[in-house]
Amino acid sequence: MTIRVLIADDQVMIRDGLAALLSSDPEIEVVGQAGNGREAVDLARELAPDVVVMDIRMPEMDGLAATAELAGDPDKNDADAPKVLVLTTFDLDEYVYEALGAGASGFLLKDAPAADLVQGVRVVASGDALLAPSITRRLISDFARRRRHERPSPAATAALTPRERDVLRLIARGMSNAEIAAELVLAEQTVKTHVGHVLTKLGLRDRTQAVVFAYENGVVGD
C-alpha cells in the first residue's frame, strides 16, 4: 500500500530535497508541498495524506499550530487524520515537547541519515511503533514529567486489564509488538489485539500518545 506524504517546510530547497528522497522509495508518494503551516493544513484537508512531514519554524502558522489543528480537525476522526512527523533542528529543542502535546506522532532530527526519514515515515504511517531512538524516549519522559502537576488517580487505567497494563508499560519502553510478544510469551497477533484495546479504552490515537499517557499517569517509573 502506498504511503501518501505531504511535506511542509518554508525552504524550497529542503522541501525539494525531502521530496526527492522520499519519492525514491516505491511505496511512498509525495502528494504535495507546503511553505507554511496554514498551507499545510489546507493541503492536508484537500489531499488527505497519510503522513505530514512538518517543520516547526514556518511563517504565517508554525508547525506546532498546524499539528494541533490537524490532530483536532473536527472534519476527520482519529483514523482519518494524517499522522504528523515533526522535523526539528536540535535534539533538545523545547518545541519537541510542544509538538508531542499538539498531537505529533513522532519526530526526527533534520541531520538524521536519509534512511531514517524513510523509515520514520513508514513507522509513523503504520502506527505500529514509536519513532524512538534513545533520545526520543528521554524527551518523552521529560515532557511527561513537565506536565505532571500532581499524581494522577489509579482510575486513569482502571479500564485496562492487568495484561493490557503490562502491554502499555512495554509500549512506553519503546518496544515493538514482536518484542512485547517475546517478553510476555504471547503471539504477536495477540499483542496487536491488546494494543488496539489499550488505545481504544484510553481514547488514544496511536502508540506515541500511549507512551506520553503512560509517563503522565505513572504507569512506568521515571
UniProtKB/TrEMBL annotation:
Keywords: DNA-binding, Phosphoprotein, Transcription, Transcription regulation. Pfam families: GerE, Response_reg. This is DNA-binding response regulator. The modification 4-aspartylphosphate is found at D55. InterPro entries: CheY-like_superfamily, NreC/VraR/RcsB-like_REC, Sig_transdc_resp-reg_C-effctor, Sig_transdc_resp-reg_receiver, Tscrpt_reg_LuxR_C, WalR-like. Residues 4-125 form the Response regulatory domain. Residues 153-218 form the HTH luxR-type domain. GO terms for biological process: phosphorelay signal transduction system; regulation of DNA-templated transcription. CDD domains: LuxR_C_like, REC_NarL-like. One of its GO terms (molecular function) is DNA binding. The keyword DNA-binding applies.
